[in-house]
């Protein structure tokens, strides 16, 4: 199963359209996908308990009771992850940053459940499109701290959306087939 995590308050905008095209491509490959819309989740910011490190360091879990643990568990069980975010001021959506801040604490300090998990990154910038590349770089750096393997980075901007949105369907298919083929090879070994 591929988990598509997306963040945008606009359910009919460019980010939602990109997410839908990726899901179409995953479906073409015959692979199951699940979406998580982070804007619909209750995920609070890290409270840096116990002088900055709490149970995230000692036990690999967060003390805050919200939707974080459920999303984290789904990420762990997924075969691959797609992150789709709008670009705000050359950076990713705030709710995605909040989630990744807490995820990084659990992963890098204790768990390491996501090491070598493959993912695809999509940044959707409106207006001039400036900042899409920087957003992808920040997202890749954050995920890299946790050992995730980035297979694709796709900037979608107003200039290229006419040809990139259809291409996202092919990207979703290629990503799903990559995961399926790798899983089949590993099972055969």
CATH superfamily grouping = Flavodoxin domain
Number of domains: 1
Main pleated-sheet profile? 5 strands, parallel
CATH architecture call: 3-Layer(aba) Sandwich
What would you call the shape?
globular
Q: Tell how many strands the DSSP assignment holds.
A: 5
Question: Would you state the CATH class?
Answer: Alpha Beta
Query: Structural class, from secondary structure content?
Result: alpha/beta
The percent range for strand residues is 15-25%
Oligomer: single chain
Low-confidence stretches: none
CATH topology-level name? Rossmann fold
Number of helices: 6
Order of helices and strands: EHEHHEHEHEH
The largest beta-sheet arranges its strands as: 2-1-3-4-5
Q: Could you report the average pLDDT, rounded to the nearest whole number?
A: 93
Computed CA radius of gyration, to the nearest angstrom:
16 Å
Instruction: Name the helicity range.
Output: 40-55%
**Ends: how far apart?**
21 Å
Features of the shown structure:
5-stranded parallel sheet; 6 helices; 189 residues; globular; 5 strands
Overview of this protein structure:
The chain contains six helices and five strands. The protein is of the alpha/beta class. Helix 5 links the parallel strand 4 and strand 5. The protein starts with a strand and ends with a helix.
